[in-house]
């Protein structure tokens, strides 16, 4: 190549580079979650092909994103190999950044990325102040989501008419650990994590998603050379606020406060006996809860302790975890336990030690998000603690109106419409907890959904 040709080549290369779109490696799979225990920060996660730098710009004015934060840690990839395939999956570069110093009840705008491209501008609204019982807190509850048209119907229904402050997903997210239905061996097709990330971005780039691990997140697939590290993808792709709750487990078990509620996220698929770290952490976490600040305590895990469906009945993670932990939850008067795993909705009356008990906990199974395994049809005769059950896909809506009154509705997917099928008020008093409904209208609490424009009625207690 002559000197002149070389210069011409360089000039052409520069011109081509200048013509490349700015978003040549823009973020994908963007989602957010609460970043601490106080409700003052929000973590955003995203994936790039090759861009290693990363930051988030945010602010209350979409035209002037005047705050910024660099990514929390160096962007990284993980490798995954299953027993049954020679192919090694390598993830994209995973980024996490934390937007701190946020005010409650405030709409923020943000975009994430780096020098090789940024995302579109997303927005979210922060939850009410910690401890507030003067305005309702709205939480969408789902489980066993998967990535089917039913999954999307569920997400569409949540977004359409319920402005939840957060969505809680009680395990079994992408179903990446089994490539095809009825496949005898689990291939762990990690690309399904990427398709799931793209499916949920339109929802959870705008609303915090809080997750816990289910059996489909374990992903340990047999002898070497398979990847031996359990929960590898789940641990890599999220940054839940574990450190602020004193958990050093990554995303495996942790807690967070939001408005008037203390939320606890447990792991059914790691040790839970009294001498195990998860139990000891839970005991300490419950001991530290200040009920004058967070009058509601909501515990969540994947495998249900109470359920009358014939599917997944009396599995070890259900019976042994209940045997280990139920007394502790009862001692601290935990209000709700949400679980999934069984792909059907079921609400239990306040229950303790296998009997209805006003000092017990309201158990709700919400493993009906819409995954490809289908609804779990078939029941045992209905136990006295089982209040309502139905094997149809859908989602739950929990509204905490004040320190004593919660309203829970379950919405099933019927012909693409969210139809209210269970409707109950959970009311606490000195004598215990009772379920009232569906005719009870909340007394002089106004039943309002749409937290950006409406406010609750007077406080009852
Ligand atoms: Fe499950």
UniProtKB/TrEMBL annotation:
Keyword line: Glycoprotein, Hydrolase, Signal
EC number: 3.1.3.2
Any Pfam family: Metallophos_C
Domain Purple acid phosphatase N-terminal per the UniProt entry, residue ranges: 27-126
Domain Purple acid phosphatase C-terminal: start-end pairs: 360-416
Region (Disordered): 437-461
InterPro entries the record matches: Calcineurin-like_PHP (IPR004843), Metallo-depent_PP-like (IPR029052), MPP_PAP (IPR041792), PAPs-like (IPR039331), PAPs_C (IPR025733), PAPs_N (IPR015914), Purple_acid_Pase-like_N (IPR008963)
Signal peptide: 1-19
Keyword Signal among record annotations: yes
Highest taxon of source: Eukaryota
Calcineurin-like phosphoesterase domain mapped to chain residues: 139-345
GO molecular function terms attached to this record: acid phosphatase activity; metal ion binding
Catalytic reaction list: a phosphate monoester + H2O = an alcohol + phosphate
Enzyme class: hydrolase
Family assignment from sequence similarity: Belongs to the metallophosphoesterase superfamily. Purple acid phosphatase family.
Protein name: Purple acid phosphatase
Species name: Monosiga brevicollis
